[in-house]
């Protein structure tokens, strides 16, 4: 039989073995062989991003048939829920990052520190640029082929093209952002403490403006307020009286995605704390010295001097994703659309997870209509209760948004929705049911852009990849309503475990499954335990717990290092 040279020993000897020898199998222990003992060409999976969804995907991926390559400008995973605590030194930035190289070594994956600047889906290629291109003289840009692409690049802060925001405001998205904010806050206090300043100048420098009353803006305001009360009073007693925090929100209320009880508590607490909360106030421009808002009540534009602005009004697609959406006919959409298996619509072998994508809502409604038409075999416009229940089960299984909508409206299932439309008839009128669903359509929200969704999507996709071969032979998904047979996998289903809104002063609001709301000090302890347990390694867990202890004992560090 054929002889192959495999490797040379350091002593100069040459190891030779035959094509079919057991030794060959032994030496190829890490390569996957087909049933004839031939190595299988591994599919190349390229993952873009090392954030919540990318990290979770890589962590759970466990299939030796894939050659996995990660491209991300960030060589670490960032635990974003604790980012607001970095802005005032409660927690150190290093404590909430986990180097990606450790996971790569453990899993045998490859990592490249670069940013993907273009996706060429028709040639299955990505174009990348190294983070520090200037020092690499021509090697800074390169192409990479893929068989399967997993897009997990997250999103960028959305400025709504408000003039001056990019130039003058701070964002809170990355570890560097949090450190920049921390330095800038300290810097404001040092500047305001300089001699020869007027009172007006001190007031301007120490006016902190937070734009956006969502969870991040609220948490940052609360952290800043804690810093002023707990530490600034001791460290900068002479200028403490000049400090002011203003929180601007364009809508009627802050935390409007939370239960009304939480919103009301947060608004009252902020008023008690002296945080100047302005709702119905939309920022129309920021200059180096002033921030201008249009007040909904009066219709007037008002300008105020400020020392520092932090912008936290939501997220938008990254340029590389916008360009990709144009290529694949999704240019009109706001966010990249996937189906419920997280496959990018209109594009083969590309998946998208986390903040970068959303399951296409309009198609969901078209699909629901198609599911009905298929179930209505006799074309009668009605379904009997048994068929109807089957259809409803299918819909809830496929579409997490529908399920979330029902839960939010305290409906057990879609069948309850129907009662108002159809009464107690034994035959279900399809048209009436669709009318009832159109209510879901108009109110149904996309899945929230949270770490919870992103990490569950990463885990789901990894599980699909892990059982790709098995499920090809034995599909486990629901019946196809377009075409015959079953889908290979169950669709992605989101499980909501609740949300927290830290409000400062060791108080947190918690909204937990089952419509359970808890606000106060006890929820703060729940918050500490949940986030400590969610940190991705024992190293970060120990670091964060020791940061919290350090803060309790010694207070926050106010050096601008
Ligand atoms: P990210 O985690 O943002 O990861 C994106 C990755 O892609 C990064 O590694 C990035 O470097 C990389 N990348 C970017 N561009 C490219 C490119 N061109 N090519 C390759 N790689 C690229 N959610 C919660 O559930 N609970 C919370 O308490 C919470 N608190 C938050 C607090 C703050 C301050 C912030 C900013 C967010 C918070 N979130 C929270 C939201 C949560 O962080 C996001 O929903 C989550 O990070 C989304 O995960 P992702 O994988 O889509 O993106």
Automatic annotation (TrEMBL):
DNA-binding recorded as keyword: no
Cross-referenced InterPro entries: EF-hand-dom_pair, EF_hand_dom, FAD/NAD-bd_sf, FAD/NAD-binding_dom, NDH-2, NDH2-like_C
PROSITE patterns: EF_HAND_2
Keyword annotations of the record: FAD, Flavoprotein, Membrane, Mitochondrion, Mitochondrion inner membrane, NAD, NADP, Oxidoreductase, Peroxisome
Gene3D superfamilies: 3.50.50.100
Domain of life, per lineage: Eukaryota
Keyword Repeat included in the entry's annotation: no
Reaction equations catalysed: a quinone + NADH + H(+) = a quinol + NAD(+); a ubiquinone + NADH + H(+) = a ubiquinol + NAD(+)
Chief location category: mitochondrion
Topology of this chain in the membrane: Peripheral membrane protein
Domain EF-hand: 363-398
Pfam family, one: Pyr_redox_2
Subcellular location as annotated: Mitochondrion inner membrane; Peroxisome
Cofactor(s), names only, from the UniProt record: FAD
E.C. designation(s): 1.6.5.9
Family of this protein: Belongs to the NADH dehydrogenase family.
The protein's name: NADH:ubiquinone reductase (non-electrogenic)
């Amino acid at each position: 039989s054929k002889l192959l040279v495999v490797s040379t020993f350091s002593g100069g000897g040459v190891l030779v073995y035959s094509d079919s020898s057991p030794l060959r199998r032994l030496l190829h222990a890490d390569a996957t062989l087909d049933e004839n003992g031939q190595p299988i060409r591994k599919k190349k999976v390229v993952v873009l991003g090392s954030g919540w969804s990318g990290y979770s995907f890589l962590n759970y991926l466990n299939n030796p048939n894939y050659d996995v390559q990660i491209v991300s400008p960030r060589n670490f995973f960032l635990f974003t829920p604790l980012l607001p605590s970095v802005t005032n030194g409660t927690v150190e930035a290093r404590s909430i990052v986990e180097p990606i190289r450790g996971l790569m070594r453990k899993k045998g994956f490859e990592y490249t520190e670069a940013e993907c600047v273009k996706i060429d889906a028709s040639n299955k290629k990505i174009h990348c640029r190294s983070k520090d291109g200037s020092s690499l003289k021509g090697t800074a840009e390169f192409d990479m082929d893929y068989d399967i692409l997993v897009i997990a690049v997250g999103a960028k802060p959305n400025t709504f093209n408000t003039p001056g925001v990019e130039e003058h405001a701070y964002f809170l998205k990355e570890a560097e952002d949090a450190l920049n904010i921390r330095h800038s806050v300290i810097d404001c206090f040092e500047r305001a403490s300089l001699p020869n300043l007027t009172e007006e100048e001190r007031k301007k420098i120490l006016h902190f403006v937070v734009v956006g009353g969502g969870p991040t803006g609220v948490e940052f305001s609360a952290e800043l307020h804690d810093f002023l009360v707990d530490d600034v009073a001791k460290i900068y007693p002479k200028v403490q009286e000049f400090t002011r925090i203003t929180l601007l929100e364009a809508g009627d209320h802050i935390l409007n995605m939370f239960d009304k009880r939480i919103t009301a508590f947060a608004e009252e607490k902020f008023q008690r704390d002296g945080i100047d909360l302005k709702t119905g106030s939309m920022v129309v421009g920021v200059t180096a010295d002033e921030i201008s808002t249009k007040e909904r009540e009066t219709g007037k534009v008002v300008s105020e001097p400020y020392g520092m602005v932090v912008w936290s009004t939501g997220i938008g697609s990254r340029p590389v994703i916008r360009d990709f959406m144009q290529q694949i006919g999704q240019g009109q959409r706001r966010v990249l659309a996937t189906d419920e298996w997280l496959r990018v619509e209109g594009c083969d072998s590309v998946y998208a997870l986390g903040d970068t994508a959303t399951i296409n809502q309009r198609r969901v409604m078209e699909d629901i209509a198609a599911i009905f038409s298929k179930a209505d075999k006799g074309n009668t416009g009605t379904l009997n209760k048994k068929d109807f229940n089957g259809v409803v089960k299918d819909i809830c299984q496929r579409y997490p948004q529908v399920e979330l909508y029902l839960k939010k409206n305290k409906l057990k299932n879609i069948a309850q929705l129907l009662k108002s439309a159809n009464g107690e008839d034994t035959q279900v009128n399809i048209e009436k049911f669709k009318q009832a669903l159109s209510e879901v359509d108009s109110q149904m929200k996309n899945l929230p852009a949270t770490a919870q969704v992103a990490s569950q999507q990463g885990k789901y996709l990894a599980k699909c990849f892990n059982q790709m071969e098995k499920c090809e032979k034995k599909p486990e998904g629901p019946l196809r309503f377009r075409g015959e047979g079953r889908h290979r996998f169950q669709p992605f289903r989101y499980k909501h475990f609740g949300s927290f809104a830290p409000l400062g002063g060791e108080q947190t609001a918690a909204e937990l499954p089952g419509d359970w709301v808890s606000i106060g000090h006890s929820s703060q302890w729940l918050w500490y335990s949940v986030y400590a347990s969610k940190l991705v390694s024992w190293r970060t867990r120990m670091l964060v717990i020791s940061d919290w202890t350090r803060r309790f004992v010694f207070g926050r560090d106010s050096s601008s290092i």
